[in-house]
Amino acid sequence: MRAQEVPGPIDILSIRQSSILIKASEPAAQAKGATRPCSRCGLLAGEWNDMMPSCSFAPVPTTLQRAEYNIRMKVRRTITSTPEIEGLPYLETFSKAAELSSFTAAAESQCLTQAAVSQRIQVLEKSLGKSLFARRGGRVVLTQSGRSLYEYAQRILDLHRLARCEISGDDAPVGGELPIAASTVPGEHLLPDMLLKFRARYPHIQVRATIGDSKAVIAQVERGEANLGLAGQKADQKHLDSRFLAKDRMVLVMAPGHALSRRKSVASKDLFKQPIILREAGSGLRQCFEKSLERAGLSLGQFKIALELGSNEGIKQAVRRGLGVGVLSSLAVQKEIETGELHVAEFADLSCQRDMFVIQDRRRVLPLPARLFLAVLDAHHPLPAMS
After folding, report:
1. Residue 279 burial (CB < 10 Å; 0-12/13-18/19+)?
2. What is the pLDDT at residue 198?
3. What is the pTM of this model?
């Protein structure tokens, strides 16, 4: 950066205690008619340089002249040594492209053309001298440099919002969309309470929740259709993180007049001849049941599977009508147990505990609404670190 020059020597107007008031004036040497600078110190005749006392133009300085010179040199050093900080342009556009993994989607969200978004990203990359995105399979993902910048960008943008709120008093509400995918049990029995707390705090964020089985939930998160997933099983893919959400257990469900309805627990062998009603393949509950059988040295083929249904409500209706014994989540039948509509028994010889998880794709960065949802969730249901 080119150094800025001080316009001329500074006259001392007054020195009172520790306060010195100065002003810029015409060069004193020019007032005396001197125009030729010294070849050694660069000062005009009439000025002086205490670092070069042998200068031919340097008279013996007075106390006032020494104070003037020291102040002028201090100001000059301050001006020439302070670098100008270059800003980081288009952080909001960069963040939106990172969150959506698409320049096209980022352009639509900001009412820009795709070319304009590409140009903005290029300007930002040029200013940093680093590539921020890589193209993979028709989408863009952050490089390591891009991930580092994204963390700083969120802090900068958060500070911008905070500064605007504090200074102007304009507390702009947080908006946006939050797509969530949830499997049946967490979606029907945990998510409503979560959304109640979230909506109370962030009413301007639009939540779009879809309900399906755990396999479908994981697929939606992997495709980027949902920012977060709530599933009854852990994701096997290495790029998907699974964070523990809550515990659940499988139970046997039967109509009050069923032959097994007086028992508190039932052994697996007593179920071999009973018609069994299960969730469909792909559901977390079905996977948990099959793994429990494997650990006990049993297989699904030893049971008489009467029905496979895609919803917990469907299983409960079939059990009420005496079509068989259902295998369900304890959370799914709490109301029916309280009213006496259905009877519940434990498995005597199967490990029936299962965990439910929050699923996130680590290849994508979480937009602000998703981060806020996790913060609310963590405040009411403390979550361990992603694994």
Report:
1. buried
2. 93
3. 0.63
CB 97 within 8 A of CB 365: no
Task: Give the distance from CA 35 to its chain's centroid.
Answer: 65
Q: Where are the beta strands (DSSP E) in the chain?
A: 10-16, 19-24, 133-136, 139-142, 176-183, 205-212, 228-231, 240-254, 265-266, 275-279, 304-309, 325-329, 343-347, 353-361
Of 349, 369, 233, give the one whose Cα is nearest residue 296.
Answer: 349
Strands annotated E in 31-189: 133-136, 139-142, 176-183
**Which tokens hold the place of 274?**
């009973």
Dihedral Cα 109, 111, 116, 122, nearest 10 deg: -30
In tens, the pLDDT along 274-304 reads 999 999 988 888 988 999 999 999 999 999 9
Helix/strand number for the chain, H first, E second: 13, 14
Find tokens 């049946």 and name the residue.
Answer: 184
Cβ density class 94-103: b for 16+ within 10 Å, e for less: bbbbbbbbbb
Which residues of the chain have a pLDDT value below 70? Answer: 1-61, 65, 73, 75-85, 170-172, 381-387
Backbone angles phi, psi at 184, to 5 degrees: -60, -50
